[in-house]
Amino acid sequence: MHMSAAGIPQGHIAAAVRSGISEPTLRSHFRAELDLARDQTTALAVGKLVRAIERCEAWAICFWLKCRAGWQERRQMEVSAEVSLVEILRRRQAKQLPASAAETTVNLEILPDDKRV
Questions:
Q1: What SS3 class is residue 116?
Q2: Of 12, 44, 39, the residue nearest 52 (C-alpha)
Q3: How far apart are CA 57 and CA 44, in angstroms?
Q4: CA distance 84 to 102
Q5: Whole-model pTM?
Q6: Do the Cβ atoms of 30 and 41 come closer than 8 Å?
Q7: For residue range 35-64, what is the model confidence (pLDDT) as tens digits?
Q8: Cα–Cα–Cα angle for 36, 40, 45, nearest 5°?
Q9: Helix (H, G, I), strand (E, B) or coil at 74
Q10: What's the burial of 85, exposed, middle or buried (CB within 10 Å: 0-12/13-18/19+)?
Q11: Secondary-structure percent of the chain, ordered helix, strand, coil, rounded to 5
């Protein structure tokens, strides 16, 4: 019963079967299908996913690693700039930089939701 696997309420399934049956009749005649539909569909999907991984399909490998192995995509950008000592002193004097700016290292990471760290 694909409808049960998709989470369709039993009342709707009963109405769609033949010319419409009651929910108790649906459960009486299709108990095994209702109980096993989700697990059977999941097993079918996992089997197809594993076959795609065996064929070295990149999408399947990435999907498995993200969903089952806890992998995450990270976007990281490294920014490096050299500023002359004169420029650092000028900015510090203008109170644009803290006193320890000459020794300060700034790490900037671009996050997917555009937040800056």
A1: strand
A2: 44
A3: 18
A4: 10
A5: 0.51
A6: no
A7: 899 899 999 999 999 999 999 999 999 999
A8: 150
A9: coil
A10: exposed
A11: 55, 0, 40
